[in-house]
Design goal:
single chain, alpha/beta, seven-stranded mixed β-sheet, 20 helices, Anthranilate phosphoribosyltransferase, Glycosyl_Trfase_fam3_N_dom_sf, GMP synthase activity
Amino acid sequence: MEALHATGVAASVAWRDSFASGLSGRDCEQKQVWGGGSGSGACGFRFPVLKVESRSRNVADCSGSVGSSGFGHRQVGGRRCSSGNYAVAGRASPSTASDDDEETYVQPRVKMLQDAVGPSKILLDAQARVCTGPTQTRPLDEDQAFKVLNTILQSAKGELPASEKASKAQMGAFFGAMTLRKNCFANKTQWSVGEQKAMSELWPALCECLPAEVLFLADPEGTIMGGSSNVGPKFSGSTPSDALLVSGLRKVMTGSHLEKEELTTLLERILPLQGPNGDVSDALLAAFMICSRMLGETDRELDAYCMTFDEELGSVPVAKVKSLTHYGEPYDGNTRFFRSSLFVAAVRASYGETCLLHGVDWMPPKGGVTEELMLKHLGANTNLIPKEAVRLLEDKGVGFAYISQREARPSLYSLVDLREHIKKRPPIATTEKVQRYIKGTGREAMLASFYHEGYEGPLLELVRRRGVQAGLVIKVGSMFSSCLGPAGFDDLAYERL
């Protein structure tokens, strides 16, 4: 697409009828590809497989085709296309990777957990069952419960290899979820007979080797396990950050919610994470994140998660453009189908509609292919801060930019490793899609997509609070969308796509 070509990010991609004909498989002219060569054949260029590998050794592949054609200097949609070597995020060399290359395109980063082990697959499988909502939770049977608790016990005793150990973050998420289920969930999703039996039999051994913060999460008031441990009622945390988390957890694990100001203070105090040198307990933070999600966030809480770090890098920069559309897809990418937002945004940019995408290179739980991975594979430099991206948006020969959460919200990006260990999406997975990294002087619109029903209303409310003129939220894989227009918000307004 033209904006990508003009910014030095993609192989030549056709516009208008050429683009449509490429997608439909019609023949088209010979095309230019990376490196200045040309080739013939079916209309379109193919993405080599992008391999995304996490510490848990999950691999996601993505391949697809996009229509393309010869690309000279031509006038399209009122914008002159040139072959200038701009970049969506600065200059970068085109990728020369083939389908057989092992390159992952995931930028190396310093790990931000205090406990650099695991995650244990056994625990992750259990978390997928029990770290979810009051109607979706699937209790463990007796064999599963004993297997999980024995894995935790062996991990705490140091009897497992580091790669197989349950991390403290996993222990925190698991026991926090178990406590919330015991205290608040309906009979169907409370503890099973097998879970109760396993906990009763192994609890004395767990009390001897688990750290205090994990024992607190397993029995915060000393009532769940019959008063056999007094650690929970007395626990207050070993650092000021932990004390805030303990205070919040005592509310959340009993079904209460935090006020916006209370949650904002907590987030500002604990983020960004500092890894092994930090003062924030992996277990406490993991439990807080997953329990908040399981309980269901209030509008006040979502507001705090969404807005707290808006000025982390200073005031939000402003682009002098007639229109600006923000695209916020789920940050964890796709593993099952091709995501087209990157190319839709580039096409719209070529017609004078300025577009801004944002995301990350890799994110749990899907760990799928993201817009940033595609851009890096196509040769883009994805390391611009928002102020630098403004220049690209204002450039009438470009009108298109990508911003990584890594550069714009380092505090939120520091949670990536924790999110891998808690397995399920935390509240931030909802709010990060509704970021306004740059403001526009003209009309602004915001587009976001989501996976689970029930989030269309809260997402549109966040869009409205962002101060843009229009919003659209789309359920991934659905035939329906919900919209916000100049007339205001209507949570019953659905449009068939």
